[in-house]
Amino acid sequence: MFNRNTGIVLAIALAAGLGLLLAQKVFGPAGNGGHQAGSIIFYPTPRELPDFSLTQSDGTRLIPGELRGHWTLVFLGFTSCPDVCPTTLSEMALAQKQWESIPESLRPRVVFVSVDPERDTPARLGEYAHAFHKDTLAATADVPSLERFATPLGLVFQKAPGKNFKANPDDYSMDHSASIAVLDPEGRLVGLMRPPFDPKLIASDLTKLTGKTAP
Predict the structure, then answer these.
(1) Which domains does the chain carry?
(2) How many C-alpha atoms does 129 have within 13 Å on its Cβ side?
(3) pLDDT per residue over 158-212, tens digit each?
(4) CA angle 200-205-209, nearest 5°?
């Protein structure tokens, strides 16, 4: 359950660009020491993330150590999302196909985190995400755990009840950030990607960050 202060923060952040304002308030905008390079707005300094624990689609835990060793792109969504989520997953899949030649031990990762744990079981979430690309990691958790994971990334989400929500508890959608958080191989938050996304530019940027030649 969201408390009053959390609700206020979410409302402001959602209204100001689905996560961008919150990220800028925490880390400073690109013009205050940060810089944009290609598709990524890099923050002035990397930010260590607090401990988190999510459940992946295969039942294993997604914890900080699991994200080390790779550049990682993290975004929020849910399987019932009508537009933003399938569009973003499709765009990320195009980028992922371009870096498939990178060794798996170095290959950038894409992590899709469902903020709708009431409807998105790990199995359903995995089936949905892997339909776009087999390498996409999919995870979810209870709402408090999701909040602890998303907030330090500058990402936000909130349930949006429909007109018939009182009579039908399944009549709701999820408002969530459309931006993508960028983590370095140490598992630290280093930047942000804002839509619209360019799969070729993202693939080139992430390939360069791994030290490989862009395809």
Answers:
(1) 4-209 (3.40.30.10)
(2) 30
(3) 999 988 888 888 889 999 999 999 999 999 999 999 999 999 999 999 999 998 4
(4) 145
